[in-house]
Amino acid sequence: MKKLILAGIILMSALGSQAQEQQDHSIQVTGTSSVTREVESYQIDFSIAVDYAYGETESRKSFEDLKKSFFAKVKEAGLDESKFKEDKMGYQALRMYREGNLYTFSTLSRDELLKASQLANGTVVNITGTRAKFKPIVKTDKQFETAFRNSQEKAAMIAKAINKKLGAVVSVTDLTPQEAPMEENFYFKPIEDQSLTLLVTFSFE
Fold this sequence. Notes:
The protein has five helices and eight strands. The chain has two domains: 23-37 and 137-204, Translation Initiation Factor IF3; 39-134, Alpha-Beta Plaits, CATH 3.30.70. Strands 3-4-2-5-7 form a five-stranded antiparallel beta sheet, with helices on both faces. It has a three-stranded antiparallel beta sheet with strand order 1-8-6. By secondary structure, it is of the alpha+beta class. The chain is elongated, with a radius of gyration of 29 Å. The chain is 36% helix and 32% strand. This is SIMPL domain-containing protein. Residues 1-19 form the signal peptide. It holds the Pfam family SIMPL. Keywords: Signal. InterPro entries: SIMPL/DUF541.
């Protein structure tokens, strides 16, 4: 029994030494490929709230009057009123503590997005949030191949720099987040592409 235990210890030590030796003779790099993020919709949150801080002006109107005035301007701007969705819970979360409501405008048109942004007046109608909503990302074989080739090129340059020959692949790990953010704050800036990232370990001789 003692002989079996001793043999097991020797075997594990040998495997550990082999693994350490393999790790000492390897190059680990990342490879990336671009993943285009397809926008499903742009969204703007508008708060409409009664405000008594400006005396006898528009802010003294009731919420219903403010709402009617807002949607009259929506129509004048050529925007579809049905694209504005009421969000009472969202308004409560703003903690404005006065009568009002929140409306989220969704569109895929940047022209409509700019038109809608001009509806805010900085007093009773304000933009409280802007974001882009994305479609789910689908990874393709071509993207994985591009990322791997990218890592291989990096590893080859490193091997050449240390006068070694690049060997076989030891391991590959996908570092790309499983779930990319479905929404992102958007301030009328270009949408950045996401990258598919692989961590690849190569042996060298």
